[in-house]
């Protein structure tokens, strides 16, 4: 059965507007005026006065990261649960090779610490997605950096 969110304010990059939202399963089917025949076939949820936000992206997380002889509090499981409860549907974690280590080594270490998560370097972002970013500590000194980035991109 479809779900109809009626009476809310939809927030988007274009602003905030009063609109109904029709959801089929896990997908938004229609935003705006929902015809009565569709509304009659849907479970109605009154969201009058509520603001309806899309899923958020946290573009810089530190899950299970070793920093200064300690490890950050959240691993992927606890961090993901916290994120989704707050409306974040996509996280981009931090793959961090140490000074002098290659990007490939940093990526291998990230995968070793997170064996159940397989993420290509570049991907479209569906809901509940994980990706990662890199820290370039030696980018000025390392003349092979751009070659290494190209190789990593070709491997994924």
Note down, in words, how this protein is organized.
The protein is an alpha/beta fold and 156 residues long. It is 24% helix and 35% strand. The chain is built from four helices and twelve strands; from the N terminus they run βββββαβββββαβαβα. The two termini are 38 Å apart. The model is unreliable at 120-128 (pLDDT under 50).
Quick gist of this model?
It contains four helices and twelve strands. It has helices spanning 36-40, 76-85, 103-113, 145-155; strands at residues 2-6, 9-12, 15-18, 20-24, 27-32, 42-46, 51-52, 56-61, 66-67, 70-71, 88-95, 129-134. The strands form four sheets. The chain has a four-stranded mixed sheet with strand order 5-4-1-6. A three-stranded mixed sheet has the order 3-2-7, with no helix packed on it.
- Please bin the fraction of helical residues: 10-25%
Distance between the termini: 38 Å
Largest sheet: 4 strands, mixed
- The whole-number mean of residue pLDDT values reads 77
Layout of SSEs?
Blueprint: E1 2-6, E2 9-12, E3 15-18, E4 20-24, E5 27-32, H1 36-40, E6 42-46, E7 51-52, E8 56-61, E9 66-67, E10 70-71, H2 76-85, E11 88-95, H3 103-113, E12 129-134, H4 145-155
Parallel strand pairs: 1-6, 2-7, 8-11, 11-12
Antiparallel strand pairs: 1-4, 2-3, 4-5, 9-10
